[in-house]
Design a protein that fits this description.
Blueprint: H1 11-115, H2 119-141, E1 148-151, E2 156-159
Antiparallel strand pairs: 1-2
Length: about 180
C-alpha cells in the first residue's frame, strides 16, 4: 500500500498504520479461517477416502466371495457329473463283460452241441463198443492172437507153432499154434 503524507505530526500515520494493521490482522484471520476450513475439508476428504476404500474393499471381497462361491458350486456340479459318468461307465463295462461272456459261452455250448454226440448216440456207441469187445474176446479165444507172417519166395502165410505139442489129423498135418 502506498503511504500517505502525514499532515499533522504523526497522527495520520498512526491511523493509517492502525488501519493497515487491522487489515493485515483481518487478512491473517481470514487466511487462518481459510486454512482451518481447508484442513477440515482435507480431514473430511481423508475420512471420505477411508470410507470409499472400505466400501471398495467390501465390494471386492463380496464379489470375490460370490465368484468363489460360483466356482465352488460349478466344481461340485462337475464332480457330481463326473461321478455319474463313472457310474455309467462302470455299468456299461459290467454289461459289456456279461454280454461278451454270454456270447462266448453260447458259442462254446453251440459248438459242443453241434460236435458232441447226443445221449442216444453215446448209448448206441457204448452198445457197439460192448459188442465189438465181445467179438474180439471170442476171436482171441478162437485164434485171433495168431502171429501170422509171410514166408518164403512166394510170400506164403506162416504161423508160429508149438513144436512140443503133438500133431493132429489123419495125415498129422495139423499142428498146435504157439500160445493156444
Amino acid at each position: 500500500m502506498p503511504r500517505r503524507a502525514s499532515t499533522k505530526g504523526g497522527s495520520m500515520t498512526d491511523a493509517a498504520l492502525s488501519t493497515e494493521a487491522m487489515k493485515l490482522g483481518l487478512l491473517m484471520e481470514a487466511a487462518q479461517a481459510q486454512q482451518q476450513m481447508s484442513q477440515e475439508s482435507l480431514d473430511r476428504l481423508a475420512a471420505h477416502t477411508r470410507d470409499l476404500d472400505a466400501m471398495v474393499r467390501d465390494e471386492v471381497q463380496r464379489t470375490v466371495a460370490e465368484a468363489l462361491g460360483n466356482v465352488a458350486t460349478e466344481s461340485r456340479r462337475a464332480t457330481e457329473s463326473l461321478q455319474r459318468v463313472r457310474r455309467v461307465a462302470h455299468l456299461r463295462t459290467l454289461l459289456w463283460t456279461v454280454l461278451i461272456a454270454m456270447i462266448c459261452s453260447g458259442v462254446a455250448m453251440g459248438e459242443a452241441w453241434w460236435m458232441l454226440p447226443s445221449q442216444r448216440q453215446i448209448a448206441a456207441m457204448r452198445a457197439r463198443r460192448d459188442s465189438l469187445a465181445a467179438n474180439i474176446a471170442r476171436l482171441e479165444r478162437r485164434g485171433g492172437l495168431l502171429e501170422v507172417r509171410t514166408c518164403g519166395p512166394r510170400a506164403s502165410l506162416c504161423v508160429r507153432v508149438d513144436r512140443m505139442a503133438p500133431a493132429y489129423g489123419p495125415s498129422a498135418d495139423y499142428l498146435v499154434v504157439k500160445g493156444y
